[in-house]
Design goal:
By secondary structure, this protein is of the alpha/beta class. The chain has helices at about 5-20, 35-40, 55-65, 70-75, 80-95, 140-159, and strands at about 25, 50-55, 95-105, 120-125, 130-135. The protein has one domain (about 5-159): CinA-like (Maf protein). The longest helix is centred in the last third of the chain and has 19 residues, at about 140-159.
Length: about 160
Amino acid sequence: MTNNSIQLAQQLGKKLQQLGWQVTCAESCTGGGIGYAITSTSGSSSWFKSGYITYSNEAKHTLLGVSEQTLIDFGAVSKPVVEQMALGAAQAANANMAVSVSGIAGPDGGSAKKPVGTVWFGFAVNGEVSTHCQCFNGDRHQVREQAIEFALQQLLALC
């Protein structure tokens, strides 16, 4: 975990406390890293609802309500899946904000259409969803760290 991630989580906590909002996360390729950064912040229990590590398609479907057909049609690393993950997490946790992450951290699993480093993000804010796709460089650890920082930066921007 980078110091930057911890600092971003602290800034996010301050903003969320000012708004009286709570956040949740639905993570796949980051494996709980966003939740770890958030809960490294003292007092985060007042603004962090819960976190979902939904690494498998079955978990995405069962825990977050991602449509099985969406997973078949688009694959786990896709815009429609992170949209459904973010909305499902926000609803399940009854949170104002949710971030979802699904990507290919590597070193395997990439393709011509979705190379290693491709990460999709979904952000649900009071029922409205936005998405972003990033392609990060580096090894598995570096891709995951960059994804965590990007997620936290975007959450801050959306507050």
